[in-house]
Amino acid sequence: MNYNLYNQPIGDAVHSFHQPEKPDIEILEGKYSKLEHLSTCHLDDLFELLCDSNNDLSWTYLPNDPIHDKEAFSTLIHHYIHSEDPYFFAIVDKTTNKALGMMSLLRINTKASTIEVGHIHYSPLLKRTRIATEVQYLLAKYVFESLRYRRYEWKCDSLNAPSKRAAKRLGFTYEGTFRQALVYKGRNRDTDWFSIIDKEWPDIKQKYECWLDERNFKRDGTQIHKLSIRSHV
Question: Which one, 60, 84, 122, 202, has the greatest CB density within 10 A?
Fold first, then answer.
């Protein structure tokens, strides 16, 4: 424990702190997938997969209600394309070159060196696939190794059980619940907070890379070993 000259406990010194950059990259490429800065070329694929009425349940915890009209969806996508915070990416399958979903970096605070992943919208073709995990790895690697943030956050509605499970599986540590954090879609939201900090990233990165290795998958694509990242409760 560190103490100041008044014998008060204080935090550890942060040496050579450099304010991180804002996201500005056009593409992040992995073995199975790419994260491409969202553009109009992704519109048709995303409308087909995300706006099908059979996929309405995927909109429940997002800011917008389900959209089935292409013009309305195009308006939303154009807004996302020109947004700097959130900064949106399309999730692209390298095999088919088809956009299967989207996600973003948001609440970008360069002075505090914190950034959040959110607006995660996976189509049914993404769920429980290697790509769904790889894009989370690619974005975390970009945040910690290229942009040099100290803290990477994940927040979700406390009732969104799949999102909470995903956060823990991906190595985020649960930090608590902000009660009545906001109102959206005419209802209350208690928000659960999760994070990864920079000193945890090397170990988490290694676990991602072991899981993503082609040798961890059978011929039918099923995993041999589960992604196991110890996350604090």
Answer: 122
Q: Which two tokens stand for residue 225?
A: 């070993």
Q: Looking at domain 23-216, does it have CATH number 3.40.630.30?
A: yes
Q: What is the DSSP string of the chain?
A: -EE-TTS-EEPPP--S--PPPPP--SEEE-SSEEEEE--GGGHHHHHHHHSSGGGGGGGTTSSSPP---HHHHHHHHHHHHT-SSSEEEEEEETTT--EEEEEEEEEEETTTTEEEEEEEEE-TTTTTSHHHHHHHHHHHHIIIIIS--SEEEEEEETT-HHHHHHHHHTTPEEEEEEEEEEEETTEEEEEEEEEEEGGGHHHHHHHHHHHHSGGGB-TTS-BSS--------
All structural domains of the chain with their residue ranges: 23-216
87 — phi, psi (to 5°)?
A: -110, 110
Taking the whole predicted model, whether its pTM rises above 0.85 is answered as: yes
Q: What was the pLDDT predicted at 233?
A: 46
Q: Over the stretch 117-141, which tens digit does the pLDDT of each residue have?
A: 999 999 999 988 999 999 999 999 9
Instruction: Quote the CA–CA distance of 102 and 18 in Å, as a whole number.
Output: 30
> pLDDT tens, 39-89?
999 999 999 999 999 999 999 999 999 999 999 999 999 999 999 999 999
Task: With a cut of 80, say whether residue 92 has pLDDT above it.
Answer: yes
